[in-house]
Structures are given as structure tokens and as C-alpha cells.
Amino acid sequence: MYVRRESPQDVAAVRAVTAAAFAAPDRPVPAEVTLLDALRDSKEWLPRLSLVAAVDGEVAGHVVCTRGHVGGAPVLGLGPLSVTPGRQRQGVGLALVHAVLGAADALEEPLVALLGSPAYYGRFGFRAAADLGIAAPDPAWGAYFQVRTLNAYDAGLTGAFAYAPPFDAV
Q: Can you give the residue ranges of every domain in the chain?
């Protein structure tokens, strides 16, 4: 497996992986695919934080962090994270999350926020955002809205989190 930045040639494959990962019988095009397309067209898209995992030369997974804000300060929002169904539970998602967190830290970002399973994301050091004084966009998210602090984090960074505007349509 090789994790690298997404290239323009990967866009169709990333779209296909995301569609397969989030497929549901009642949704011909998963919301995550539409979200990814809208994020790519937004000013919050950060190409250096859009990564693919290639296995045997094929895109098997994708992760992206886009610009978000806590109390007006720039931070990152992670997602979607997609792994093609045939490669799930083989370490592809694990490698992608580790890589994007390392890249975000190298870019001196203070923290990464996401909505996801505490059991899954806890292994990467994510914890409930409320524990750090960061409010979820929707209070009902509770412990599922999490943050992972990075080296540039300042404990004074508190307030409401806002994802990139395309998330509002999901």
C-alpha cells in the first residue's frame, strides 16, 4: 500500500471508491460523493490534505481534511474517509488517517475535528470535542463529535466548530 496526495487523475477513482464505500439501496448517489464534489469546488479545499491509498496500483481509499473553524480560528474538519468495500478491515483506513494527521501536523494545523465512531477514531487520539470546550455544530452529536489536537494546538482554542460550507447541505 502506498499513501500519497490525490492527483487530478485520481478524481474519478476517488469518486468511485467513495460511492462504493457509502452505497445504499435507497441512494443512487451517496451524499458523501456529492459532498466531496462540492468540497473540491470550495475555497476550503486543501489539496495537500487530500490523500489516496493505492494498493496494487489502484485507488483503494481516500481521506480529506478541509478548512473548518473554531470560534473563527482556522482548524481542520476530516471527512469523508472512504475505503473500497473489498479492502475494508485491511489497514487502509488506518494508514490514511495516520497519514493525514501527520500531514496536518507538519502543516502546523492546531486540530482536526470529525463526526464518527469514538471506538474507531479513539485509537488515533480523537476524543469528545466538548472535553476541550469545542461545541459540535449539532449538540445531538454528543461524543461522536471528536477532535484530535496536534502540536500547534493552544488550549485557549475553544468555541463552536464550523465545517466548510458544503457540509451544511449534507
A: 2-169
127: burial class by Cβ within 10 Å (0-12, 13-18, 19+)? middle
Q: Which among 68, 99, 63 is positioned nearest to 81, based on CA atoms?
A: 63
Nearest to 83 by CA among 74, 73, 94: 94
In this prediction the pTM is 0.96
Tell me which CATH homologous superfamily contains domain 2-169: Gcn5-related N-acetyltransferase (GNAT) (3.40.630.30)
Q: pLDDT tens across 124-147, in order?
A: 999 999 999 999 999 999 999 999
Would you say 59 and 14 are in contact if contact means Cβ atoms under 8 Å apart?
A: yes
List pLDDT tens digits, range 68-91.
999 999 999 999 999 999 999 999
Q: Which three cell numbers stand for residue 148?
A: 484530535
Angle at 101 between CA 139 and CA 30, to 5 degrees: 60
- Please report the sign of the dihedral spanned by the C-alpha atoms of residue 79, residue 151, residue 159, residue 69: negative
CA angle 124, 146, 155 (to 5 degrees): 90
